[in-house]
Specification:
This protein is mostly helical and 185 residues long. The chain has helices spanning 9-15, 18-40, 43-60, 72-90, 96-101, 110-132, 137-148, 153-160, 164-181. The protein is built from 9 helices and no strands.
Length: 185
Amino acid sequence: MRRRRPRPDHELLAAGDGAAFGEFYERHERAVLVFMLRRTSTPELAADLTAEVFAAALESADRFEGRDGASAVAWLFGIARNVLSHSYRSARVRHDARDRLGLPALDLTDETVEHLEHLADVARGADALVLLDRLPAEHRDAVVAHVLDGRDYAEIARELGCSTAVVRQRVSRGLSTLRGLVPPA
């Protein structure tokens, strides 16, 4: 039996029906949510902003003109940046698109908040691993061995064939560099 190819995003947006937009939503909801989690660090706020992003996308889907390579994802993240920007400027989440569409207020269960907090932790962990890759190899290896693996300095020094003072210095310099790479909250 032959499986149907998934419809491209621009076709889903052009279809003008709830089922097609639902497929678009399911395809990109997690990415938008993680985008918001990384910028707000508050699961409830990230969920609220994500809901507004998709309401605005639904409201303007008929105006998306993505044909032949224009990216619906770039369009969607443009909406996300605008929603986030408006939220920062007004110091609140605007519910304009959801209100115009008659969508109910977002009601988060404890289970949903826990899931969102887990996604936020995963996003932060992924960011930390990216930053670790920016360290010189000797500092990265020392930080991973001591901080992440919980090994003591003497054990690491024996493995590397150097003194514990050298291992301490590498860990210290690595952590100092990481602190400099982390953007202020």
